[in-house]
């Protein structure tokens, strides 16, 4: 097959994309004129040409890496389709035209905002490169924030600052908010940021939706003056957080991060159900499955332990009276195994004598659910316990400051990746990252500020890397990243982008503003035979980078170019 | 259906949008390794086709002047290129429309927007399946 390797493809694509952006802004101007003509006397053919223009955008924007623009154009195209290009457009009644004008105008607002967004990122070469890279290689999902603010300067500044933390944020008006949410399929909207004045309207618009995912979107108030009255009023208006001027960006980012992690966690859960009545078991399974919980039914207790080992549940639901077995004994048996000591076990029982319940609880289970249990009650009891179980296990496995994997766990992950590379023959990279002159930060501004710097790097890493990459806090200011299926060149490019973005972050301490840089060493996991060897290689590269002036990325390459150079 | 193996396959892409023509050239030549010629209208495509002798024609559905289906009809009436396979490119993709285009004699339909990095693969899959 004549597949050509096209190394200059990203540059060529970027040029075409720039050209497309120019035409996009011309198209948007024309569309606005066509919309304006709708409500003037001279509207002959305005709808038809707007319709064709939107159709063309719908079919092309995605090709230039702007699927949101395409989807928004498609939505507007659908609005116009029934009325566009009919024989005599001017015969539409004026009320109908006014409604079309409204819809078209708010859609155009979203399109302009999306287009402006693309243009600003196109001017930043590092972002642009990241975009092309993301689209062609990484399927990482980016969190999008919508910003609603009457002060557009403040909103654009916030947009830019949030994007340097890896968030994709978009400035919209209240009217255009729903369109922007609907058209953001791929990069899901995770939060709405609104200036205090806009919070009530944003809430009203959000609550007009019937989609539970949209109703759950949190609203954060940003900017404005801090006072008890303001805080109380915002709380009354349903805001989930308040970040008054001057906005502490690392705190805001941290809140949004936590929130999206909790949301992702809330919908999952794995449950083993030990129940010998097949109809009842299937009913429970279905009810829980609809709530997003995975259930494995065990109807033969002799298979319980092997099923648990394979399924790794967050929780066990155990029928107390099983045919020939006692649930109480089975629960105690599960606890024989040290790895299941903290696993929640819940009895499903028709026993309502509190003394007998207590006796059973002391023998290994955590709680009772009385049969018959209502579907809703079952779902909620299981969800809340799964969530707690996950939080607990996160606490045990995660670094408390950054939420990243702890030292021992990231190292274990690296060992697993070494084994996988050997088995499957794929390429993977390991990165050792270290903050430059971090001691000076702590000494000058104190540990609280130092912690903020560390958290900011953790958040940036989480946002910029793929979901499949594993990130751990290796030591005080040292991080370890394992990138499965990633070759050295890709890893280098991604890390260079991250290093550049990080050095651009401005931290504040009192009146001072300062920047921190990082150094990174990268090594190929597949090229070395043990985890320690690849760690050493990454460490060597990091050491070279520190030696050669810090603030950047060095790759450890085995082979002749790495051998000591002879003097000429 | 097989493409020639001894030389790069030739593709004629008829499309009225100049930006799409430019990116399609990249997608098909740089990424896909095909030899590509583009035309801005059905009329121009009909003039170009006999001399270029394409192995495949990509045809935009909605164009001013002759639209995609009309262009396909005209190609089928042209002695020199009547057998060349045609794939439609369309931004409107409903099942009934796909069926309609296939009945007209198209080999396949590719939805727009397309991904420039995978367009060539998509074409090869359609050809391999037919």
UniProtKB/TrEMBL annotation, chain A:
PTM sites of type Phosphohistidine: 55
MF terms in GO: diguanylate cyclase activity
Reaction(s) the record says it catalyses: 2 GTP = 3',3'-c-di-GMP + 2 diphosphate
Keyword presence, Secreted: no
Domain of life of the native organism: Bacteria
Main enzyme class: transferase
Residue span, HPt domain: 9-118
Start and end residues of each Response regulatory domain: 144-260, 270-386
One Pfam family it belongs to: Hpt
Residue numbers of 4-aspartylphosphate PTMs: 319
Protein name: diguanylate cyclase
Native source species: Marinobacter koreensis
Classification of source organism: Bacteria, Pseudomonadati, Pseudomonadota, Gammaproteobacteria, Pseudomonadales
Automatic annotation (TrEMBL), chain B:
Alphabetical list of Pfam families matching this protein: Response_reg
Family matches, as CDD domains: REC_RR468-like (cd17552)
SMART domains named among the record's database cross-references: REC
Species of the source: Marinobacter koreensis
Protein name, UniProt field: Response regulator
Keyword field: Phosphoprotein
Domain Response regulatory residues, every copy: 10-127
4-aspartylphosphate sites (modified residues): 60
């Amino acid at each position: 097959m004549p597949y050509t390797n096209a190394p200059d493809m990203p540059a060529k694509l970027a040029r075409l994309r720039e050209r497309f952006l120019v035409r996009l802004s011309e198209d948007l101007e024309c569309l606005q004129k066509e919309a304006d003509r709708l409500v003037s006397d001279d509207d002959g053919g305005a709808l038809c040409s707007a319709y064709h223009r939107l159709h063309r955008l719908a079919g092309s924007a995605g090709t230039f890496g702007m699927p949101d623009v395409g989807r928004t154009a498609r939505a507007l195209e659908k609005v116009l389709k029934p009325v566009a290009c009919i024989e005599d457009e001017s015969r539409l009644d004026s009320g109908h035209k006014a409604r079309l004008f409204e819809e078209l105008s708010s859609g155009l607002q979203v399109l302009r905002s999306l287009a402006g967004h693309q243009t600003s990122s196109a001017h930043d070469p590092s972002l642009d490169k990241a975009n092309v890279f993301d689209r062609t290689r990484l399927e990482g999902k980016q969190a999008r924030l919508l910003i609603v603010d009457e002060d557009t300067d403040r909103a654009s500044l916030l947009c830019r600052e949030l994007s340097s933390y890896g968030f994709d944020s978009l400035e919209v008006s209240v009217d255009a908010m729903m369109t922007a949410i609907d058209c953001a399929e791929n990069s899901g909207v995770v939060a709405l940021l609104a200036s205090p004045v806009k919070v009530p309207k944003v809430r009203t618009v959000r609550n007009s939706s019937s989609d539970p995912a949209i109703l759950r979107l949190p609203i954060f108030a940003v900017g404005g003056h801090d006072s008890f009255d303001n805080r109380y009023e915002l709380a009354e208006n349903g805001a989930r957080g308040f970040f008054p001027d001057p906005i502490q960006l690392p705190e805001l980012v941290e809140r949004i991060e936590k929130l999206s992690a909790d949301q992702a966690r809330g919908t999952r859960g794995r449950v083993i159900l030990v129940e010998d009545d097949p109809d009842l078991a299937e009913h429970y399974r279905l009810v829980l499955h609809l709530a997003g919980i995975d259930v494995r039914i065990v109807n033969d207790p002799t298979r319980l332990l092997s099923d648990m080992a394979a399924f790794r549940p967050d929780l066990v639901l155990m029928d107390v009276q099983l045919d020939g077995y006692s649930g109480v004994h089975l629960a105690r048996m599960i606890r024989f195994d040290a790895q299941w000591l903290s696993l929640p076990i819940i009895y499903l029982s028709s026993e309502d004598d509190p003394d007998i319940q207590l006796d059973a609880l002391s023998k290994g289970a955590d709680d009772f659910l009385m049969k018959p249990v209502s579907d809703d009650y079952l779902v909620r009891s299981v969800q809340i316990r799964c969530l707690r179980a996950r939080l607990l296990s996160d606490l045990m496995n995660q670094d408390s400051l950054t939420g990243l994997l702890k030292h021992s766990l990231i190292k274990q992950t690296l060992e697993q990746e070494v084994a996988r590379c050997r088995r499957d023959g794929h390429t993977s990279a390991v990165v050792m990252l270290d903050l430059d002159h971090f001691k000076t930060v702590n000494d000058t501004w104190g540990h609280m500020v130092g912690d903020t710097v560390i958290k900011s790097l953790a958040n940036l890493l989480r946002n910029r890397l793929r979901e499949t990459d594993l990130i751990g806090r290796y030591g005080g200011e040292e991080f370890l990243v394992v990138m499965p299926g990633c070759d050295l060149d890709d890893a280098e490019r991604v890390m260079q982008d991250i290093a550049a973005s990080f050095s651009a972050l401005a931290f504040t301490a009192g009146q001072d503003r300062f920047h921190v840089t990082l150094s990174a060493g990268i090594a190929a996991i597949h090229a070395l035979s043990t985890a320690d060897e690849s760690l050493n290689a990454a460490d060597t590269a990091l050491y070279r980078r520190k030696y050669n002036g810090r603030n950047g990325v060095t790759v450890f390459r085995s082979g002749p170019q790495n051998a000591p150079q002879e003097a000429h | 259906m097989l493409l020639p193996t001894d030389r790069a396959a030739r593709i004629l892409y008829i499309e009225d949008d100049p930006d799409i023509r430019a990116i399609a050239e990249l997608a098909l030549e740089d990424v896909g390794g095909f030899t590509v010629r583009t035309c801005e209208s059905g009329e121009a495509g009909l003039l170009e086709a006999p001399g270029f002798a394409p192995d495949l024609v990509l045809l935009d559905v909605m164009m001013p002047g002759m639209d995609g289906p009309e262009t396909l009809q005209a190609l089928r009436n042209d002695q020199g290129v009547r057998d060349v396979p045609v794939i439609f490119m369309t931004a409107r993709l409903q099942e009934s429309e796909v069926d309609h285009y296939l009945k007209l004699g198209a080999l396949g339909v590719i939805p727009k927007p397309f991904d420039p990095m995978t367009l060539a693969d998509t074409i090869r899959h359609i050809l391999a399946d037919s």
